[in-house]
## 1
Amino acid sequence: MQLSFKHLTSTKQLSRADADAILSRAREMDKVLEKGKVDERLKGKILAALFYEPSTRTRLSFEAAMLRLGGQVITADGFQFSSLYKGESIEDTITMVNQYADIIAMRHPEQGSADRAAAVSKIPFINAGDGPGQHPTQALLDLYTIAKERGAIDGIKVAMVGDLKFGRTVHSLTFLLGLYDKVQFVYVSPEELKAPDKVTHFLREKGLAYEETADFSAAFDCDIAYMTRIQKERFTDHSEYERLKHIYVLRADQLKGKKVTVMHPLPRVGEIDTAVDALPNAAYFRQARNGVPVRMALLEMLLGR
Amino acid sequence: MQLSFKHLTSTKQLSRADADAILSRAREMDKVLEKGKVDERLKGKILAALFYEPSTRTRLSFEAAMLRLGGQVITADGFQFSSLYKGESIEDTITMVNQYADIIAMRHPEQGSADRAAAVSKIPFINAGDGPGQHPTQALLDLYTIAKERGAIDGIKVAMVGDLKFGRTVHSLTFLLGLYDKVQFVYVSPEELKAPDKVTHFLREKGLAYEETADFSAAFDCDIAYMTRIQKERFTDHSEYERLKHIYVLRADQLKGKKVTVMHPLPRVGEIDTAVDALPNAAYFRQARNGVPVRMALLEMLLGR
Amino acid sequence: MQLSFKHLTSTKQLSRADADAILSRAREMDKVLEKGKVDERLKGKILAALFYEPSTRTRLSFEAAMLRLGGQVITADGFQFSSLYKGESIEDTITMVNQYADIIAMRHPEQGSADRAAAVSKIPFINAGDGPGQHPTQALLDLYTIAKERGAIDGIKVAMVGDLKFGRTVHSLTFLLGLYDKVQFVYVSPEELKAPDKVTHFLREKGLAYEETADFSAAFDCDIAYMTRIQKERFTDHSEYERLKHIYVLRADQLKGKKVTVMHPLPRVGEIDTAVDALPNAAYFRQARNGVPVRMALLEMLLGR
């Protein structure tokens, strides 16, 4: 199947057919990785990884995905010292990079920058995170992880825990899960960090079942507990951050007898005790690994259109 | 044909035969790029991209050129934090990098650094810009663009517009065009940013026709209008920069009925209105793209000597 | 022969059989490099070069080694701006990178970080320097250089000159040479920079012959004079640094009629006059080059276990 889009800037572009096709291709890519054989289907192709804002995890994952398929990578990380600094527009930078590469993955601190970039790009463009905006490949690898860990997505019950207000990944994943049937949502957060209106409006419009609570234990009986980090940089009031940062800390004893799959976009800074890592529930490092086959799938599908 | 040099540090090294041979090889490389087939003639070779000063455009273009020919790249960008910082000489750094790579492209903020590097390098060395000094691959891609856009170089009329005093690219391109027959030059700048003596002396010595004017419209009837950016960092007096920065801004209406080819080394910061981009005159993004085949040609010719 | 370890964090892990096997494999790799043929025995494999602290020389050498064997590289240099900054533990970062690469080389400013990393890594891990701790691949390339320059290691007489107190390479090389028979040591330093107890204890325990002196000329009659840089950053008292920094400066005239092989881990900042470079005694650039075959050998042996 062909994807319905040339550029991926937001999870909102994805139909269920798109999402299913990507998951299906990612499963094939997982087999490529498991076999450990050299695969060169993207030989001769170049990915430009443009990271105006550093994100080592996302960048290395994209680069590994491209290299695992025999492609090559050119990287610009910490753009602030270069052309941008001299005042070049995103549009000009993207048009320039179009001359050098076959596909672009861009991380940028400004919301909307990905749409501006995609509007001028003649080669496929992937948003690798635009500030508080979208980070669709993270949402897709989250979705792939759910499918892999639980067998199916339809009908599952997902708890999102922590910073639901600023947590970009929580919003994107909600929109993506909305494509599936009878997914139930539990939003666990303190009052100050509740999911914003755009998320709850979406749920009501779609007629999806959800509850909101501050009670952490509500997460343990779900299929998925999606933990998030409370980000210091989101708070203007330091004392509020100090009060909330460790409001939900997952310990191994809380998971005793529970089948819940624990996810986290990483990095964690104390939200999950390291003793949890050894439990079968702990899926967050497998989740990180899933970034590679999902991005391999996207790179191949977008380059092959 | 073999090039007459092992290292490329300045356009002044180039004979017309050298320049023609590079343009001819660049045309072949363009065909390699157009076919989109995997080319591996530099397989097993390593380019060291040493950027003491960041220049994303030039670096990515060199790296893409090397990768498009099946070669590999090792990169050091933002050298200030590393050995250099510990006081190592350029000579020692270059001798060290000779142990790791097969060819070097170096950007450095100090004029003369490229000559020092080339003097000790046993592997081919390419100057990718040494401060206010030379940037020969930029001049070569400019020359290639003129040849490609206008069919021939002999006899053409070229306007250079903007900062002709500090604009390194304007100086290098003038020297290179001086190798060709009956090229006419029009230098368009405010009094404060006129071409320096080294340029006008060169033109008079060679007996080349040139005029100097502050009138922007003189550029529109030439074959080429080579626009440049007025660089803030060249001014000690901020108000002078503010007065001059937008002295020549090219708008689409000024090009109505004109066949002039508009070039710019990029990045632009307002010298060319974005509405110009859609006109056939606008060659600056094609010019950026030409950096790839020209650098492919140089890498192959220098490695093949 | 198989190495006795999966991860290389310290020279103390190495048996003589390990060291000999690595030198033997490095000699094969030297032949690969001399032939200049494309070698692809690590095709499809990815090295993650994680440099929390910049070290251009070590990083480029590791990257070149991987590329020379047909492998690929993903690099994170200047980690401070990324996840680490958000407070991620070394253990989590290494576990994450395990998902993307097949082998890791890490440089980190904190002593002990390499052991922490190796403890959680499921893929082979190489310490590329952990602060004042260990830098085993430097010691191995030093050892390989001695073997190559002098034909054999058993029975040689080695002078270590300069900062023997803080000089990590001097300590590591001493431990490694202790695996061989009848090596004699001469430690040349000012009183303030004498080799620490851990080194002299080691020598006495092993029953190895050594002398300590402040007299530079003692080095010239040895087989090897291993020069080191006096590092500014090790001194709290600036005037002491100024007094000691040029206490031992090697000049060409001092080597007249001498067969001593001069080594230096580089960068040098004045300890060896550049006129020495042309003498056959000067082995330090060949030493830098030896980093490539030694690292090629290690990468292949660890990936092939």
Note: The domain at 11-134+290-303 of chain C is CATH 3.40.50.1370 (Rossmann fold).
## 2
Amino acid sequence: MSDSTSTRDENSLTTEKMAERAKKASWTLASLNTEARNRALEEVLTVLQEQKESILASNREDIEASERDELAAPLRKRLDLSGDKYEVILEGLRDLIQLPDPVGHVDYAVRLDDGLELRRVSCPIGVLGIIFESRPDAAVQIATLSIKSGNAVLLKGGREAAKSNLALVNAIREGLKRAGVPEDAVQNLASREEAQGLLSLDHLVDLIIPRGSNELVQSIQESTRIPVLGHADGICSVYIDQQADLEKAISITVDAKTQYPAVCNAAETLLVHSTVLESHLPAIAKALQEAGVTLRCDERAITQVDGAETATDEDWKTEFLDLTIAVKVIDSIQEAIEHINTFGSGHTDAIVTEDPQAQETFQALVDSAGVFHNASTRFADGFRFGFGAEVGVSTCKTHARGPVGLEGLVIYKYRLNGNGHRVDDFGPGKKAYLHEPMDK
Amino acid sequence: MSDSTSTRDENSLTTEKMAERAKKASWTLASLNTEARNRALEEVLTVLQEQKESILASNREDIEASERDELAAPLRKRLDLSGDKYEVILEGLRDLIQLPDPVGHVDYAVRLDDGLELRRVSCPIGVLGIIFESRPDAAVQIATLSIKSGNAVLLKGGREAAKSNLALVNAIREGLKRAGVPEDAVQNLASREEAQGLLSLDHLVDLIIPRGSNELVQSIQESTRIPVLGHADGICSVYIDQQADLEKAISITVDAKTQYPAVCNAAETLLVHSTVLESHLPAIAKALQEAGVTLRCDERAITQVDGAETATDEDWKTEFLDLTIAVKVIDSIQEAIEHINTFGSGHTDAIVTEDPQAQETFQALVDSAGVFHNASTRFADGFRFGFGAEVGVSTCKTHARGPVGLEGLVIYKYRLNGNGHRVDDFGPGKKAYLHEPMDK
């Protein structure tokens, strides 16, 4: 901490003041009940409706600037809030208000002694730092997820969306103000320096959530000691087992690779058991190629695939994010599992098999957030999983893993209620702890 | 990650190889069922019984060296495994074997579609790095907690206990070997350089658990990007509310301060509401002084306490760990809460009051792992809480907070079982997700 203090410049000191205000606002937020937090979200919804035109005007300024700066077309498209996009944002907020409150759940309750009751109760984490790229709708989504879960949030969006983000955050703050909730629960960081400052504030910021490119996430993971919830790479594999059904193998592989190739839960690697190399790979490859996919094959796989490219070792750890897949032949399920645990990113991996033993081995031993059997990796998604809202997908090994819903934004505290109880009254020759389960 | 790679020296490369072996062992451990892991612990118990004499001989070498090096008497005492201590270790291991398995619990189960079933199942985290000081019994406790929860572990103990730790780890490895479990699931790091290397291996080590002084924990937190489960300071407060019962105030404050002053859940700060300053503080102070406690009082408190010292601002953030307490008078419960949230360490804080409103406000707004009402802060402990075993106490805001039991050593994975299901079959005009709850 001493290091980061000494290197903090004026900008990050400003960020520190903002984070201190966020921390204080988080204490108030934590005291609001479900109704009060939902009422604040209702006010935010109203203001977003009222200010639609002025927010879209700010958005147009960003779009015009992006045209002058000749930003790539997909980036410009993601920037644009006009048309249906704005209504989708409002609809998402209405859905969020209806979701169950993640705060206040009791998941452990024991009586330690007469009149001494212990309860573990879910509560907000505190202050979240969110760093995201381009899409200004992410600002609304994340700020409102934070309010719903009782957390304060510092938002840093992309430079291209600066005016849109500011307008949206100001509207959200106006909604909070109308509901009597401290506006500092949601604050906008404008500059890159402020974002850098944010990453050094490990005494004030409890969790960083990056949303954007692999490069963004990785650079954040490497420059902060604050816990980071998210994922850099999404290197997902589909493994075609010895006892794979051919039709399932084809449809799952094609869905996993082509249904939306640019996202983290799309497959990047196809592993094929050597015993089904000749029976299965040609048909799978043909279906992939018909969908426009390029196959990069190892030396055994390439013998079965016309028009394939030769795979290099680099391909096993590459997230192509487009219509390319690396294909490797393995000789045992153990080899498949070891390949995935070594080269994968712990995101989502699937086995295609009719053998219950192979399925169980794969699902037990593959060390990924999602381990699927006879289903496409593309199902790894908070909405599909039934969470209602998604904070992001995490490849962390602690706190929250896989698609993260509102639950990922809460932790718990232990409430112990007694009647003057002293530890000194317990022990050998004194009272014993009861540890009686209670209703939660 | 590039930074840490470039600074890795030869020692840490050795550590990296050990961590790679631990990672592979962790995959095997993760595949063992409850019985197999308990059988391994039974073998460990047998070997620890068989090798008792040689382990105690190694321990005597450490003790003799510590006498030559003139280590402080309390440190030497903590080093000593003779007498009852060794039996206590074995007894702890017998208890651990009896505890419920934290692995394999399903806490979310929904049917997404006919034949498409999603389950969230608890599983081991992977590879734990444990850095602890002096007490060699911690080596056994932590290694066996790791095996019970299916994790591999790299242990780095204090230099003073080097021979004891090595003998204990070798006995544990012999037990694993007899049970057919990879010995590399438990490995001993001998040198300080190996421990430093461990902290840079964020691609192989999933969680660091430090057990020792504040300085140790803080220096580890500052030198790794691996999640750290633990606490540096334990600055716990007792707040005497306007409506505090005097007898409860006295007994809770005395218990919290004096029952075991050297531990993290002992009280370091006493906050007194100004309306009960004259009615309550003199009697509380007298009871504390009779127990040998020195009171460091602010300017209002000192008027009520004979023989008190004057508090400085530094005292509000000091963990005395002995018979000293800082005393501050505040004018509202809000001021008490803000003091605790600003100067406390998020460990455990208590309110003494008969007012349900004040109790609720305090328990909702104090942002600590333990928020207690009319009970001593000393109850913050895994065994007292009924966890059976304690990994440590965490002041983290993510993953695990407060006293951490075996649950803190597991995460979860999503198992999705289908029948050839494709994402492309769902959506507007296609199939809808069912999201039907299933039996867990």
Note: Residues 2-221 of chain B form a domain with the Aldehyde Dehydrogenase; Chain A, domain 1 fold (CATH 3.40.605.10).
